[in-house]
């Protein structure tokens, strides 16, 4: 069985597939996690305005914005962690460590995604801009802190030799 986005990657032109993977369109759960609260808030706003449905323009903007924002974050992560990604089995096949995309090309792709997000931010209503700015600042700060902990997990500083099976069994 093939998921819709997986199928989209398979039918996409070969030249752009690494960029779609760089934006993690092959693994869209993060984008959906960004999108669902946005759509939920659009629904709540529609109820508050006594409308039958949310504004379709907002629904489309939220959809594009969630995928572009997450894609930009994943692209940035891959640029910054490119040296680490080559040493970790799980991330070794990502487009930059695998040599499918250069760092310069990834930076250009990041700029494109940032421009898409800037456009969405510009056409969004003023109140939505304020909420998006606060939401983004909180998420970016939390992500940076969590990522620093993740990096420490991969590169532990040991004061003693690596634990042995015996030490693990006694813990």
β-sheet strand percentage: under 5%
Element order, helices and strands? HHHHHHHH
- Report the major sheet: none
State the separation between the terminal residues, measured CA to CA: 44 Å
Secondary structure: helix percent: over 70%
Q: What class, by secondary structure content?
A: mainly alpha
Per DSSP E runs of 2 or more residues, the count of β-strands stands at: 0
Could you give a quick summary of the protein structure above?
The protein is an all-alpha fold and 171 residues long. The chain is 71% helix and 0% strand.
List descriptors:
171 residues; mainly alpha; single chain
Q: Please, could you describe this protein's structure?
A:
This protein has 171 residues and is mostly helical. Helices cover 71% and strands 0% of the residues. The protein contains eight helices and no strands. It has helices at 4-11, 17-22, 29-48, 56-80, 82-87, 103-123, 126-154, 165-170. α3 runs antiparallel to α4 and α4 (56-80) runs antiparallel to α6 (103-123). It is elongated, with a radius of gyration of 20 Å. Mean pLDDT is 79; it is low at 156-160 and 162-171.
